UniProtKB/TrEMBL annotation:
Pfam families given in the database record: GFA
Name the UniProt record assigns to this protein: CENP-V/GFA domain-containing protein
Gene Ontology molecular functions: carbon-sulfur lyase activity; metal ion binding
Ranges where the CENP-V/GFA domain occurs: 7-125
InterPro entries the record matches: CENP-V/GFA (IPR006913), Mss4-like_sf (IPR011057)
């Protein structure tokens, strides 16, 4: 899939809407894309395997902060998280030290972006139900996680078997590994 001009997203109720554009100098596929199983990301998103991707703030429009429904919560001394004050959708993660970047929770992007548009004209039915082919969509390029952090919280057999490089905590501490947590034994 070639570079999209822009992709759209928003919260569940639609009060917060945004587009992310990909001008020539922007990475496509985006690079800063990973899962985080830290307890704060889990609590804020309500997801076992929260995933987000960082985008240059200048490429997000309109600016999220300009939307009165967009609220933020200071989750630690180093970061804050954005959400919709009306429907509660968890939308962003922001490091104070990286004010030029906003990490967007990937599930906030629109269905057409993630899965493609529904091709109803070519739908068919069988014993499993109705199959609707999709046209377009950039989910694979947009959402392929390149790293996984806070694997110390992985749930064996549920959230530990992921492709890509993993870290016990953040990428700044310790070495990245592949394989499963259960491959490690004390003293080996
Ligand atoms: Zn909302
Ligand atoms: Zn986290």
């Amino acid at each position: 899939m070639s570079r999209p001009q822009f992709i759209s997203g928003g919260c569940l109720c639609g009060a917060v809407r945004f587009t992310v554009s990909f001008p020539e100098d922007a990475d496509w596929p985006p690079k800063g894309n990973g899962t985080c199983q830290c307890t704060m990301c889990r609590k804020h998103s309500g997801s076992l395997l929260p995933q987000n991707c960082g985008f240059p703030k200048v490429n997000i429009s309109p600016p999220l902060e300009d939307n009165p429904s967009y609220k933020t919560y200071k989750s630690s001394h180093e970061a804050y998280r954005g959400f919709c004050g009306i429907c509660g959708s968890a939308l962003t993660f922001n490091y104070n030290k990286e004010p030029e970047t906003t990490e967007i929770n990937l599930g906030a992007f629109d269905e057409d972006v993630l899965c493609g548009k529904r091709d109803e004209a070519n739908a068919w039915e069988d014993e499993y139900g109705r199959h609707v082919p999709r046209i377009g969509g950039v989910g694979k390029e947009l959402c392929y996680a390149k790293y996984h952090i806070f694997m110390e919280n992985a749930i064996a057999g549920v959230t530990d078997d992921l492709p890509g490089t993993k870290w016990l905590l953040d990428r700044s501490s310790g070495k990245g590994f592949t394989g499963k947590l259960t491959d490690f034994k004390k003293g080996s």
